Model the fold of this input.
Amino acid sequence: MPRKILLIRLRLIGDVILTTPAIRAIRRAHPDAHLTYLVEPHAAAAVSGNPHLDAVIVAPLAGGLRRWAVDARLAVRLRREGFDTVLDFHGGPRSSLLAWLTGAARRIGYDISGRSWMYTEHAHRPRGHRQRHSVDNQWDLVTRFDPAIPMPTPDADPVEMAAQPAAAHQVRTRLMALAGGDAAPYIVVHVAAGNEFRRWTEDGFAAVVEALLADASNRRIILTTAPAQAGAAETVRRLALARGAPDARLVVMCDLDLAELRSLLAGADLFIGGDSGPAHVAATTTVPMVVIFGPTTPAVWGPWRPASLATEPVDVGALPCRPCHQRHCEPGDFRCLRTLTAGAVVDAARRALARGAARRTAS
Done:
């Protein structure tokens, strides 16, 4: 009978996407296993349709006392599934409790103080920063599960997110309407993030937008954010127009769901954005990328995809306070982001565009 394996990664979109190399590697090593993934609603599209999974379970979110009832029902469901192995890639209070409540014979997680007892096997997760990529860190759990699974590489096991045909159709229809029926080239600039430690300046984005629109007369730029940060996109648009950017070629699209965002990025000439979930969504496509890093570093959080794809990380370089734990800004001025110049981002964008054009010509 096939082994039943539960993989858990709750919370953030980028973190979920960064587990997809592990999903593929486990499937390759155990083709007859039944693989289920437990994820929260806002990141569910990142693994929905993943060809290496047999099932996706969405863990509902609820507040207050209702959360206990929701998790109790979820725990009953997980236990009835009869998993014999659980890998908890998250390690948070909710994920570790749910892992324990499955009753699986093997429960593999990190040796986190206060929660280690909920697992039967542990991988060490040192406190503090390690200049080691997040995907490699997850392999500590994968190796504990099966030592024969080799370490990953971006070429052999890149991140992935399945395209959704309905989302692709919706995005294509909107783009054609914007362009009056013409498939004009476009750049996607994601101008905000839920975490203030990932937000570059609106003035900086506006300067980049104006410069890149000036470079090509038929180019459009689409500004995206999550709906809650739509005001930031409107501010960038207003500032870019004040710099002379042409109104008709600068569009705001902040109502896309995750599958639609992935479809939009797959057809773009370039993605520009901070180190946040949308950057990791972009990494699942072949779009050339410029990723702006503040307190984090590319060595740990850079896009995990083949080196043949144009990827330009941009940061301010060494600072005494960088990288940091992102709980408070030690100098108080977010200098790792606010001192990064628009010129550096524009230069990176032009390099990425050139590499992307050369790749398309070669293929």
Residues 188 and 339 are 23 Å apart (CA to CA). The radius of gyration is 21 Å.
